[in-house]
Write the structure tokens for this entry.
Amino acid sequence: MNWFKQIKRLVNEPVLFAMIIFVWVLLIVFVVYPILMVGLKSFESKSGVYSFDVYKTLFSKKYFVTPIINTLRLGVVVASISVLIGYIFAYSIAKVNIPLKGFFRTVATFPIISPPFVIALAAILLFGRNGIITKNLFGGTPPFEIYGFWGLVIVETLAYFPTAFMTLEAILISISSDLEEASLSLGSSKWRTFWRVTFPLSMPGILSAWLLVFSQSMADFGTPLILGGRYHVLSVSAYLEITGSYRISYGSGLAILLLIPTLIAFFVQRYWLSKKSYVTVTGKPSVAKVLEPNVYVKIIFTIVCVILVFSIFLFYGTVLFGSFTKLWGVNHKLTLENYRFAFTYNWDYIKDTLFLACIATPLCGILGIMIAYLVARKQFPGRRIMEAISLLTFAVPGTVVGIGYLLAFNQRPLLLTGTAMIIVLVFIFRELPVGVQNGVAALYQIDRSIEEASLDLGSSSNKTFWKITLPLLMPAFFNALFTAFVRSMTAISAVIFVVSGKWNLITVRILGAVGNSDLAQAAALSYVLIGIVLMAMFFLRFITINFSYQTKIRRAMS
Amino acid sequence: MKRFLVLVLVLIIVFVFAKEQVLHIYTALDENEWPIYVKAFEQATGIKVQVVRMSSGELLARVEAESKNPQASVWFGGPALDQIAAKKKGLLAPYKSEAVEKVPAAFKDPDGYWVGIYFGAIGFGSNTEQLKQLGVEPPTSWYDLLKPQFKGRISLAYPYTSGTAYTVLAALVAIMGEDKAFDYWKQLHKQIHHYNTSGSACVTQAGLGEITVGIAFAHDIITKGIDKGYPVILTFPKEPTGYEIGAMSMIKGAPEPDLAARFIDWMLSAEAQSLMVKWNRIPINPEAKVAPGAVKMQDVNVVPMDFEYFGEQKDRLIERWKEEIEYGM
């Protein structure tokens, strides 16, 4: 269909036309414009003067070059280790017959529902000079320096390996066992079959997982702020430039430097890798056990899984214990004092966070599904670009988004600084890609003929959407809602730039408490946050199960 | 879609236009301290207050960033240095009430841009258990910090985020002269474990034993270290040390100037100033109570500090610090 026909059709459907315009306006104002502002600001060396001076300074002064190198180094190491562990874990779950699979799987995804700096907090409680492990196992001398590179590697690996694990698990499950069986029956050993068949087939997944974790590590803010010590990374340097020194141009320049590798990683992962897929999808997930390794390898795999699961328990357990202690490191008598403090002095933070996330989540879900619908089902000029832009905030580090909002919305006509609105908007547009991606994926699975039937029978495209498509999209919608809610509740890197006196967030408070070494208070607040997220999870799962079309159909059929 | 649009519209209306009369304060005081005064003020006057806590340097940056559209009316606490820097940048509004006139001239701005609330001296908070382990006496000189036993065991904050740490930098410049102070800090830098964003964080870190010596204000060391039950001891350098006049000011273009004035007046009253006992601060109002263990100006050897000069020179000194020290080596 050519552009002319597309536009002609649009004019005949004013609602659709209005929707497209509406989405475009939102995307341009709240996604493109703030990011452009960061770019623009980085060229403004003095007020009103534009030049390359900021970048010249950034690359000539050691105090800017160091963070750049540090960030890349950290990202590469964290991504590599996470992918290695994630692969072993995913392989164990997908291909090997190890005990307690479901349990391992659940535990492995636990770090996703809590902000990464909870793990950082645990790292201090465990491996600091006065940490439990340091004191009891190493006699007071830390086995390694937790503040700095290795501390960051451990914490970020624990926080982000679930991403690698889930990506790789999906890939491994989708590899048809036919090929492996064929290789085996042709006389290849298991080992050879793995290296010649399974491993090459999972290569796209490995690269994809690597790039995802790499971007997450680069964009991480809370962990290096707490645990960086003297190891400076870009996101923290940009934050300190802006909040500590008010040199917004330099902060913006650093943010742009942070943006470039993550953007490249994102687009490589998304467009290049997804096209060049080796995966042999057969439609049905196969759970073949053909490649189950010999017993020794199996034991090693199981040990890796057990160590990992044990670490996750250890880290989260420590924080839980810490939240009940009177004074960490001195008086370990158990007390509810920290929780009392959380619910009295810090009640406003909890209330505000919940309130803002509850407003943002449905709006984010609705907008996400709306964009997914337009992109996956409708023909109009600029469709691909709309999809790319709506996914952009996935690739853009929170720090950049936060600085962008700070710059873009501090003057009329879009004066939003200090309002709840700006926080809600950050939540919505940061998490928008989740809804879009879930929605697009779901829509591709729903046969078009169902909608076409409705259209052929005379329903408008509007009615078809409300009556046919939307109900089918419900599971994806609720999934998007949950992810958006969790990510909003645990967000820090973007919102730290836009919080204000009227509206404050629990993550910012936790980060402040950790920064101030009020560890027991921070631990209690972290668990309040985790509690809220868990409750939301059960609530949304309940809704999804009870109200989704699929369940209704299944019930009707049985 | 109509429903969605209506919802968005309603939200815009609710959030943009619903403004209640509330006093907005930015504070550099500890998250566990500011409620002491703010809650008492709310009870005494019935005025509602909303507070955001930031480090003093971050507060300066925030006020500067918002200068076109100020979000808070009062800058509450933290060394006067940062507020002088703010005054020089034209970010503050002068306010002189009767309450301010009672304050001795040394503790306020002659033009009324800021007024002192408390006095505090810089000291060392050391973990006694670690001192014993390392076999070393608590530091009583700036040069004691350079002892090999303390290598990688000292922390303080970034001078650009924290008013405490900038006071340390300014004091060293006042004591040693600028070039010597920077030479000294280059030595000190090698001893430092890491820098914090908040000035009093190192006290708890020393208490926990994460580090051995923290450089901070005496009142923070007493309150957050000794009084909490941590094994912490407070010492002062025998050379002079630096000090702060903790100050407050009205932000230029304050959205609630009347409420801000009432807060400043109230905060200078003997009643409010007596509450500082809880944090071991030395109140400016001579009628107010002083905590028994608190460190008064005459108890320590303080260097005379030209606050005006250091407020003005902040950007330059910080730039030099970053270039020569933080990333210089």
User: Anything to note?
Assistant: Residues 62-95 of chain A form the longest helix (34 residues). Strands of chain A lie at 44-46, 49-50, 325-327, 331-334. Residues 96 and 298 of chain A are 7 Å apart (CA to CA).
